Amino acid sequence: MKEFILVLSMWGSDGVEDHYIGQLALQQPMSEQQCNYMIDEDMWASMYVNKHYHMKGHCFPAECAGETQCEGGLEAWRNLSLSSK
After folding, report:
1. Pairwise CA distance, residues 19 & 11, whole Å
2. Quick check: 81 pLDDT over 90?
3. What was the pLDDT predicted at 79?
4. Which residue segment(s) compose the domain that 71 sits in?
5. Domain count of the fold of the chain
């Protein structure tokens, strides 16, 4: 079974596009199904006091840990939002 890790990334907007700031990665491998369940928007309650920053949730293969690019790099991340802006 291929293992995945849950990654929460932080992004800032300049009003035109999102810019990657950083991330947190849960160091507990899980199945892709479990990871997708965890990042489902219904699992989270969010509150932002600054409209220019937001978090996004991702499921990446565990073998990508520590890599600067994985499965499409940052461009692929832009499409995986944990919360609405």
Report:
1. 5
2. no
3. 46
4. 4-77
5. 1
pLDDT, one tens digit per residue, over 30-44 is 999 999 999 998 999
CB 45 within 8 A of CB 2: no
- Domain membership of residue 73 (yes or no) is yes
The mean per-residue pLDDT over the stretch 14-24 comes to 92
Query: Residue 62 and residue 43: Cα distance in Å, rounded?
Result: 22
For every residue of 59-76, DSSP letters joined together read EEEGGGTT-S--TTHHHH
| Backbone region of residue 71 per phi and psi (left: phi > 0; alpha: psi in -120 to 50; beta: other values) | left
> What separation in angstroms does the CA of 30 have from each of 14, 61, 80?
34, 9, 18
pTM given for the model: 0.74
Q: Is residue 84 part of a domain?
A: no
Q: Where are the beta strands (DSSP E) in the chain?
A: 4-13, 18-25, 53-61
Residue 85 lies in a domain: no
Whether 51 maps to a domain, the answer reads yes
